């Protein structure tokens, strides 16, 4: 296996997709809120490549606001079929290009509706009077989709591309519990590898 942790990440991501790992496109993103407390949520991996890790976010969401305020995050990925996990920290950038718009248009309509609801009903994670307002908003958008065959692209949805600078790879060993931990840190454009006690 390559000593480049990005190559390993891409390799295992593609294996997870091909092998229909139930967590293939799932990860846990941790950010730090204004009180200095960790905030964690499951997210969908949209793309994992040499360029970085793409997820779709609402720029008005708490996670985006927390990133803007302090720039700190950790992404945790676990693929049970390979019994391997990745902990990732680093930089990030936002993007909203034609490829992204095309990809968004290809999402299932219920997923598009969820994004548009944040602009038409209430911002993500805001307080709402009842779940009924969400259901009614979704019903109106389904009707709009049925009439037009498409929904308007929500301006607040962007690609958040995570740019790894630290990757820890944990490879589990169920037989003897002698797990393998490798820490990679990007220094002057080169990955430096350190082994950690499991």
From TrEMBL:
Pfam families linked to this entry: PNPOx_N (PF01243)
Keywords, ordered alphabetically: Flavoprotein, FMN, Oxidoreductase
SUPFAM superfamilies: FMN-binding split barrel (SSF50475)
Domain Pyridoxamine 5'-phosphate oxidase N-terminal: 25-135
InterPro entries the record matches: Pyridox_Oxase (IPR000659), Pyridox_Oxase_N (IPR011576), Split_barrel_FMN-bd (IPR012349)
Gene3D superfamilies for the chain: Electron Transport, Fmn-binding Protein, Chain A
Cofactor: FMN
Entry annotated with the keyword Endoplasmic reticulum: no
Name of the protein described by the UniProt record: Pyridoxamine 5'-phosphate oxidase N-terminal domain-containing protein
Organism: Kistimonas scapharcae
Taxonomy of the source species: Bacteria, Pseudomonadati, Pseudomonadota, Gammaproteobacteria, Oceanospirillales
